[in-house]
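Researcher: For the annotation table, I need structure tokens for ethanolamine kinase. Please keep the output clean. Sequence:
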Amino acid sequence: FIDYEYATPCPAAFDIANHFAEWGGYDCDYNMLPTKSMRRRFLQHYLESYKAHCEAPTPHRILEALFEEVDRYRGLPGLYGGLWALVQAAVSQIDFDYTALAEARLGEYFAWRAEEDGSRAREGKDMPLCEQR
């Protein structure tokens, strides 16, 4: 199997959140991450395509529910990608700085957690770019 970890079903919202996280590329360029309005437009087109292929209604409330569900998953690709990069740093023969990638991706996860639990605001820290986007 290639990419065996993708052989299991995941909630669509996780896969979409991961898609958005990957916009930053291996350089983790957070300026490239989609803004909320870009994510909402993507989801609107996603639902319109779904409707065209399934004859299912896609009212505004479905768009809002999907947007919120995707947003709840937005930090988990950082955890997933960070752990993957740590494993790659230990086993891969490819000349790539997986340790730096792990640090950046895990940083995304911890930035998300700090927003979710309010600790960033309580500590008076600036919001990281990955969360601003």
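Researcher: And a one-line annotation?
Model: The mean pLDDT is 89.
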